[in-house]
């Protein structure tokens, strides 16, 4: 949805189909970049390296037979807690390899044994069993994810655990499983995953919130999310309000958490289910303030990671401005501040130097801000921003088309204002003439 806009592009440099093709290419590039930055793809938590395994456990398990896996599972069920934990550690390290994962899920009763250890009353065994599930959840094979179905209800239950580390591990595991299989989502939704996630959003632990944002974003990207998950579960919960609170600028704003929830908000907005509700909750105001905060941050720092937050925030604001209800619910009033335009140009300059691929995102927002808004068009002149906009024209056809569109909107609105002033003057002259005739 991010490519929707208020003003139609005129064929200044290239045709509509060409623009659509390039838009699709840009979207594919951004998706690839996000996967490389681990914003969308599965996450893997590991607190040790494979080579740290003692006594040759890893080398013995890499090419495992079913007999070797069975032996580890038996060892994990008997003996002292230390020996059982050691067996689970060896199994977990073996499960880092696809061959062992396939061997494990083929074994009858293997998942039942792992779930039994997950639900035991010994914390260390629970943790190692959860780590084994986490390794399985990271598999690229959907059959492996579906084999974890018997454990999902317990993972949800443990989201109310007293251990923040355990909650974080369960959230990342659930996030990995959610994205892999519709069968997993069909089971998790009736089990109450949305209320469980909503309860986690009030956690004081940053690591839990970041893991929650990841799991929620995976759920929101499901193909059935716009029709079923968002309208019936997400918007009916307190999640949107809490997400906006976590995006409020200030000393409590955490960049990692903000990135995750900004993308969550983006997916909700793209569903177009009830964006007027988000605007009524002050989404535009919050995101506008966040843009100002980002502009200040890029002036203070050379941190290249800031674009990870800027991209979803720009998209959220751009898409909300295309809503027909934006005027009726006071959306424009939430952004009626020329500082937003100044902040956007600071970000455009930052993108120009550090991240040129995000320039179209910023120009798209500028286009939607200036569409049918004389005040924002006037800001371009009063803040002397025409020259910086002109400097963007040679970069690429896409960027130049967007920049020209802003110029066209500005000149069009100025002409409309002149026409309105002339019409008002003519009306006044006519009224005076009628009054004179009647006198």
UniProtKB/TrEMBL annotation:
Cross-referenced SUPFAM superfamilies: ARM repeat
The protein, known as: Transmembrane and coiled-coil domain-containing protein 6 isoform X5
Keyword flag Transit peptide: no
Gene this protein is translated from: TMCO6
Organism expressing this protein natively: Sapajus apella
Record-linked InterPro entries: ARM-like (IPR011989), ARM-type_fold (IPR016024), Armadillo (IPR000225)
Domain of life: Eukaryota
SMART domains: ARM
TM stretches of this protein: none
Keyword Transmembrane: yes
Keyword line: Membrane, Transmembrane
């Amino acid at each position: 949805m991010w490519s929707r806009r208020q003003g139609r592009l005129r064929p200044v440099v290239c045709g509509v189909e060409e623009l659509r093709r390039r838009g699709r290419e840009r979207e594919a590039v951004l998706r690839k970049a996000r996967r490389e930055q681990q914003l969308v793809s599965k996450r893997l938590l590991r607190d040790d390296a494979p080579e740290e395994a003692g006594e040759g456990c890893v080398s013995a398990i890499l090419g495992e037979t079913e007999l070797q896996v069975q032996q580890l599972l038996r060892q994990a069920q008997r003996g002292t807690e230390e020996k059982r934990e050691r067996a689970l550690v060896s199994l977990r390290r073996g499960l880092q390899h696809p061959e062992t994962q396939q061997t494990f899920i083929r074994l009858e009763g293997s998942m039942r044994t792992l779930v039994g250890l997950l639900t035991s009353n010994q914390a260390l065994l629970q943790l190692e069993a959860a780590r084994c599930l986490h390794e399985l959840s990271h598999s690229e094979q959907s059959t492996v994810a579906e084999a974890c179905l018997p454990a999902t209800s317990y993972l949800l239950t443990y989201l109310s655990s007293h251990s923040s580390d355990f909650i974080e591990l369960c959230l990342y595991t659930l996030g990995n499983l959610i994205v892999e299989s519709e069968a997993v989502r069909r089971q998790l939704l009736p089990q109450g995953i949305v209320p469980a996630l909503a309860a986690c959003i009030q956690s004081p632990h940053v690591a839990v919130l970041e893991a929650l944002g990841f799991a929620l974003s995976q759920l929101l990207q499901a193909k059935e999310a716009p029709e079923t998950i968002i309208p019936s579960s997400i918007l009916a919960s307190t999640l949107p309000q809490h997400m906006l609170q976590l995006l409020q600028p200030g000393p409590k704003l955490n960049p990692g958490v903000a990135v995750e929830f900004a993308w969550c908000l983006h997916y909700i907005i793209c569903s177009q289910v009830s964006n007027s509700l988000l605007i009524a909750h002050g989404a535009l105001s919050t995101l506008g303030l966040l843009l100002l905060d980002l502009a200040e941050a890029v002036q203070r720092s050379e941190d290249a990671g800031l674009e990870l937050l800027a991209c979803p925030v720009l998209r959220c604001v751009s898409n909300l401005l295309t809503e027909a209800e934006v005027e009726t619910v006071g959306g424009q009033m939430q952004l009626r501040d020329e500082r937003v335009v100044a902040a956007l140009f600071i970000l455009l300059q930052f993108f120009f130097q550090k991240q040129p691929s995000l320039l179209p995102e910023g120009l798209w927002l500028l286009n939607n801000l200036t569409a049918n808004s004389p005040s924002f068009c006037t800001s371009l002149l009063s803040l002397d921003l025409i020259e910086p906009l002109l400097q963007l024209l040679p970069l690429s056809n896409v960027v130049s088309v967007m920049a020209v569109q802003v110029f066209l909107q500005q000149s069009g609105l100025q002409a409309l204002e002149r026409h309105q002033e002339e019409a008002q003057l003519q009306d006044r002259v006519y009224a005076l003439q009628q009054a004179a005739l009647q006198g």
